[in-house]
Design goal:
globular, 435 residues, single chain, four-stranded mixed beta sheet, alpha/beta
Length: 435
């Protein structure tokens, strides 16, 4: 019988640790590292059933992919019911997911006092900043997570410092609290092995396509319990009308809950361009110096040369803002370079980028271009087949072969070859894992 067994979590000050074990057929998906998350508030008084939520939020989708069951000593009863709802959604979204059952020796149903606090997962990008603007009357705590796009590796220390400095500055200007947590959720799971097995079924990587809605919100459970947060918001990436298989959607995120806290997938009714409209109104009324951070390359500002920087800069112009005033070095001559890069397949694009460029194209039909160069780009965008821009992007053949080899290797062989596989991880970087 396939199973993942979760040992009892321990809380030492601000640090949560937990061991997980798997039957032989699932061992390859766990690296053997204990699951570990560090918060910036003490969590020792948080009930064990809530402390189990972060690790369960990571391993349950992995178990469901193999039809395996998960065993835990104690779990929050509300979260156990939430997992059933999320499982139903994910299994309906992906044919390769088989489902499974959570077995708990005990369930708890605490009744924490309501205090009206809220939290928002925040990076400073378009989506999370729009969600802040929409809920700013609640004065939400801004929550930033290290462990996905910024890894716990020492090489990423500077990126994490840059992000926390920027979020703290944003919060200080608005009288908000911040919360920062660091987790090894992706090195606790063998993400390259998950990618090797399941990349053929998903548009992005495992965590972006399957795990990140439940996973990121679940990480916040001890923090929310310690701080008394009743509402926890995560900004939507997509919007109504986009039918993509993605790990963060209303029918996933709105289902996540535990005693005293409900989670919300925010802004799904707005396209990305409409979210930029919300930010443009906020700039004009309250924040003329607002700067966004969306870059796929750096964290200490925006490179202005990656696809996401260009896409955001064009969107800002269409919203009536000057990109250079809000963190993007962009001038008319960049339109030609952007067109060539898109035509030449310089960036790996997925279906979500296709929808976002389509959103820009629809808005461009309503806006008078500011220059001949801008007009030429929008005319090109009107005529180009966006599907061609996506279909010609993809990982190199060597990456696909490496995935296939790892996927088909018996566990005993894989375990012997694991050091070589680890060395090859750099070639299997997460694709489009940004929000």
């Amino acid at each position: 019988m396939s199973a993942i067994i979760i040992d009892r979590p321990t809380a030492d000050g601000t640090v949560l640790e937990c061991e997980a074990r798997a039957t032989a057929d699932l061992e390859r998906f766990l690296t053997g590292e204990p699951f570990r998350t560090e918060y910036d508030v003490p969590i020792e008084d948080v009930p064990e059933g809530v402390l189990a939520i972060p690790v369960l939020a990571q391993v349950c989708p992995v178990a469901w992919a193999s039809g395996a069951d998960v065993y835990v000593e104690e779990v929050d009863a509300t979260f156990a019911r939430a997992l059933e709802d999320v499982r139903e959604t994910l299994c309906g979204m992906y044919d390769f997911l088989e489902g499974g059952t959570l077995y708990a020796r005990r369930t708890i149903d605490p009744n924490p006092p309501a205090n009206g606090e809220s939290g928002l997962l925040f990076t400073g990008g378009v989506d999370s900043t729009c969600s802040y603007v929409r809920h700013r009357e609640e004065e939400p705590t801004l929550i930033s997570i290290r462990g996905w796009t910024i890894t716990p590796d020492p090489d990423d220390d500077e990126k994490w410092r840059q992000l926390t400095d920027r979020v703290e500055a944003f919060a200080a200007e608005r009288g908000l609290e911040t919360a920062f947590l660091e987790s090894n959720m992706l090195s606790f799971l063998d993400h390259p092995m998950l990618l090797a097995h399941y990349k053929r079924y998903v548009d992005g990587a495992w965590y972006s396509s399957v795990g990140h809605g439940l996973g990121l919100l679940g990480l916040c459970a001890p923090l929310a319990a310690a701080r008394g947060m009743e509402d926890l918001y995560v900004a939507a990436t997509h919007w109504e009308g986009i039918e993509l298989e993605w790990g963060s959607r209303p029918d996933i995120d709105d289902s996540v809950r535990w005693a005293g806290t409900r989670c919300h997938h925010d802004g799904y009714e707005l396209t990305r361009q409409e979210r930029l409209d919300v930010l443009a109104d906020y700039v004009r009324s309250d924040a003329p110096d607002l700067e966004l951070q969306t870059c796929n390359v750096r964290m200490d500002g925006n490179c202005g040369r990656c696809e996401k920087c260009y896409r955001t800069a064009v969107g800002l112009r269409l919203a009536g803002l000057e990109p250079t005033d809000h963190g993007y070095s962009f001038a008319d001559h960049e339109y030609e370079r952007l067109r060539v890069a898109l035509e030449d397949g310089e960036w790996v694009l997925g279906q979500d980028e296709r929808y976002m460029w389509e959103d820009i194209r629809e808005r461009a039909r309503e806006v008078e271009p500011e220059s001949a160069t801008e007009r030429a780009f929008f005319e090109w965008l009107e005529d180009v087949d966006l599907d061609d821009l996506v279909s010609e992007s993809g990982p190199p053949l060597s990456h696909r072969l490496l995935r296939a080899g790892a996927r088909n290797a018996p566990s005993s062989v894989y375990n012997r070859l694991y050091p070589a596989w680890t060395a090859a991880r750099a070639g299997l970087r997460l694709v489009r894992s940004d929000r």
